[in-house]
Prior knowledge:
By secondary structure, chain A is mostly helical. In chain A, 77% of the residues lie in helices and 0% in strands. Chain A starts with a helix and ends with a helix.
Amino acid sequence: MSSYVAGSKRKRTKRAIVQYSLLVLLSITTLLPLIWMLSTSLKSGDVIFEIPPKFLPDGFHWENYSRAVSEIEFATLFKNSLTITFFNLLSNVFVSALVAYGFARFQFPGKSIWFLLVLSTIMLPGEVTMIPVFIGFSKIGWTNTFKPLIIPGFLGGAPVFIFLLRQFFMSIPKELDESAVLDGASSFKIFYRIFLPLSIPALVTIGIFSFQGSWNDLLGPLIYLNDTNKFTLPLGLAMFQGVMKVEWGPLMAGSILVLLPVLVIFFLAQKQFVEGVKLSGIKG
Amino acid sequence: MRFKKYEGYLYISPWILGFILLTVAPLIFAFYIGLTEWDTFNAPKFVGLQNYSDLFRDEDFVNALWITIRFAIISVPLGIATSILIAVLVNSKLKGMAFFRTALYMPAVVSGIAISLLWKWMLDKDFGMINLILSKLGIPEQGWLTDPHMVLYSYLMMVVWGAGGGMLTYLAGLQDIPGHLYEAAEIDGANAFQKFRHITLTMLSPVIFYNLIMGIVGAMRKFGDAYIIGGAGNQGRFYMVYLYENAFKFFKMGYATAMAWVLFVLIMLLTMAAFKSSSAWVYYESEVNTRPKRKRG
């Protein structure tokens, strides 16, 4: 009996060693490119083009960062990206929640048909409507403004979020809002006093996805924005890449600067985000 | 609840407005544009189904279609398998697991153009990190983005690298599997592989199915990194990049819209095939009512 226990303990230790080795190997594989990015951003031009390439930088060439900042007008582009991302975040969280609330808690004629349509728009790839929507926006003179990148969000432009929030709202016990109704609360009051506070993990999760999607969006700004001072960071970086094809030092420095806000947000909201993903089953 | 009959419409009205203005009207319009030759500066010229028949005679189109479909069919299962393996690996209470989970999840956090540029640089034939590592291992350097035969592998490599970013739903699914299933299997003498195959994969199948559908749609619509990275001329030009070029570089709106419709039909067909197959391998708890009901928080 005791030898059986010892044997299974040895087996468990062995398994833990295998598991750790795999984890370390995979983590290195995942992090190495990011470290290479950081290393490149600090290398001088000569070292970047040495054969064979060196992994570590030759000191700290911060001038890559100052060049990236000045050549893509980082401050302006940062402000543009932030503006667009902020409004998308606001609309994706708040408007999606309003619509989801309508579907989760009200009975009205035609409801199931409308909801079916929400589901079908999730499956409809945006590419089909992209060109007519572009032509429509250009006819009313909205190209080269942020409006085409902001307004759709306020018109419930994120059906996936509506769907996920509806699922989440339906899991909130009905007794809560029923007793509030008895106390004479309006439906909107119930929405922002009961539903929103109870859904914070789900809302944070959606917020992060929205932030990421909007911050990283390339196609939208590429289509709609023409003036360089209206560009977003990804678009600026893409154009910068076109001009300075082989300047990998400043390019990697600029890339890191674009990544930083997403990293900061992620680490700030990590706990609620992980909880939200578990609750709503969204892809991570 | 005792609200007025049409009160719900108040809440869903932003979406209804958007649905009419940004989905229904554009869809009708798109149907028409696809039948025209139109550069947006002059009046559209009706050409019937000409755009659609031109598509399949266009070598660039066929190339873009081919690389995109190959990429979707290989990358989606590859990504799913890698994500599951990572999820299984981090689903235990070993010391330091929080660090490994965060590290492996990083590709989902740091996405977008910055990472596309990073890969373009890493895959550089002469000065990139991938060839540097290969040469240390005694493997000859590859023209990842310059050799037409290697382009697809370059994109697949990025998918595998990013697979940790897709682990969260699988991890949540794994944590939902009741331990008594494994215990029962052990009593029946099942080995580790049998347990993984019959319990883990079966119980994860709804999550796998969800990721399969999202993966197919995502792969077919691939744009950002394909636009930035490209690769070996035609070989790295994905469907959406070619569509974008037609619409906004060459101003062939009719042709590009026809491409969008073909993409739509392709995505529908692939998704339908996935749905059709699902009854054979996706397990839903509600189908079996003999199992004890699981409590969820």
